[in-house]
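Q: A reviewer asked whether we had any structural model of the full assembly, not just the individual parts. We don't, so I'm hoping you can provide one. Inputs are below.
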Amino acid sequence: MTQRAYNFSAGPATLPLEVLEEAREALLSLGDLGAGILEVSHRGPEYTEIHESARARLLQLLGAGSDWELLFLQGGASLQFTMVPQNLGADADYVLTGNWSQKAIAEARLLGGDVHVAASSEDTGFDRIPTELDLRPGASFVHVTSNNTVRGTQWPELPRTDAPLVVDMSSDILSRPVDLDRVGLIYAGAQKNLGPAGVTLVLIRKELLARTPDGLPTLLRYTTHAEKGSRFNTPPVFAIYVVGLVARWIESQGGVAALAARNEAKAQRLYAAIDASPLYEGTARPESRSRMNVTFRITRDGLEEEFLRGAAARGLLGLKGHRSVGGLRASIYNAMPPEGVDALVRYLDEFAAAHA
Amino acid sequence: MTQRAYNFSAGPATLPLEVLEEAREALLSLGDLGAGILEVSHRGPEYTEIHESARARLLQLLGAGSDWELLFLQGGASLQFTMVPQNLGADADYVLTGNWSQKAIAEARLLGGDVHVAASSEDTGFDRIPTELDLRPGASFVHVTSNNTVRGTQWPELPRTDAPLVVDMSSDILSRPVDLDRVGLIYAGAQKNLGPAGVTLVLIRKELLARTPDGLPTLLRYTTHAEKGSRFNTPPVFAIYVVGLVARWIESQGGVAALAARNEAKAQRLYAAIDASPLYEGTARPESRSRMNVTFRITRDGLEEEFLRGAAARGLLGLKGHRSVGGLRASIYNAMPPEGVDALVRYLDEFAAAHA
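A: Here is a predicted structure for the entire assembly that you could use as a starting point for your response.
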């Protein structure tokens, strides 16, 4: 068996080994059924149990009670950029903190919405989370991207808003507790903290379902999926199955609060290593630094390729920054074990010493 | 290791054992990478090779040259019910042959299209494929469902039309050669003949891409996905990976023509067993019978549950008819080996003899 590397890819991202091992067994046969997880009817008893238990576990981990609906959708966060304003109304306030909020704003504008940018950090290259928000009374909703994978910034906590707060939590869902009292809708592509690419989680306050307008195509209506328990049509069975295994793994780790403490410690250790050497420079302002995506640069020109080659040779993968900004990035989602961060810190120290 | 059953589920459906075994190995590590297929970047070299080779193999198996674009989308055939008229124009002619065409028609009407039903078999309970089509000159397109999983009917061959022919081929794609000269667009959810649920294949004539209107949400535009090689946003990596393995498996079986011959023989053997006993009755008219979904009833009341129990005891799964029509159904897609059909035929004969 091949040795597992430490994979710092921003997404799709590393998954817990226990989860992968269990999924592996289920491919040829679910228990003693004689048919695997890819092959069973999405309306049969085996998948029904998987689907419903994934949903129940996620609701519990998110701390969401009976006034919430949890949906498994397809199309990624990118489809939510249009589904959110299509369903909730497009006259919305958006906070602009990077590439993903930019795309979300563009989709709301495409619908003809009266879109207002309530705050932006574009003037400083998206290196921070804005603190002052210019919110409009009566906006359809307020939209924030809770963690920005490209620039490595993260909201220290979610803002309080009068209009329903919509949060793109694709890259930090279940990495720390969230105060749901502040939230109207959360959406998240699964491929960072939740599981494989191919399923999108939407957590929506039931009262917001009343906003879905008549005439919207059936698949784009939140109500369609809510009424049918996310099985209006064939759901992405395998992706939901793995998300359910990840939810169970989170429980086994002590839940979201325990993971949040571990994530905080991982991030602090990594930022400390970066701050300790003049060879490295973090790209986000300290007060806005992400606990999920640690972005940094090498301050001396021409060393990044060597850094990446040396990392790969040590089994440290996926450290290249996003193609739109360059630099380096270590994504340390829930499933990255502390040992992986320790190995990266050792390498950062060695590399700095070698180039002192 | 658990014995594999013969799984006649209509979809998600049985997959080739070789495919499942290879996918199994890739979950923990792609080759010696140290990271599995669920965990690698969708823009990295490992996945790029998987993505592009799946695309190339499918184009070749479909017999589609450089005037065609092949897309990997999400949302199932159900999202195509709205994307097709959104992109191609909604003043279209539809042939109504069952539940799925009904849904497709409803979505086109929801968009305000001048939708015309060019033929229907509703008057006889969808037990046949209509032969006379009342097509309008100047229709945006003509839509047919090539195989009807619920009622067990299938077009013997695709009709010739002046307007571009759009074919929902979710349940018979790559089960037989198709004359692409007659076709403008094919779409298919993967979970019957292609792979797992979670990816939808769209094959579109490049000239039709010019029809996509301005202002459509980005993710719903065929042009978005065509321009970005189906990687505008994170694709459903694992589903596409398995579809690529299935495509390679089809090649190893001798290609689509060889599978078509095998499928024809499987279907004939099964229909012959049904026709041989007065205990069984096929529900589709002989000239419209599907080679993929063999639908039948037991003519004596109250025996279906016993039939299903006995089948399960012999490792023959998924034989219950669609919940909307009841009865029995054996889905015998590409991946159902002839031995599975033989086992079912033996059981049909034994059950008939026991109840003679």
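A: Points you may want to mention in the reply: The domain at 17-252 of chain B is CATH 3.40.640.10 (Aspartate Aminotransferase; domain 2). The radius of gyration of chain B is 21 Å.
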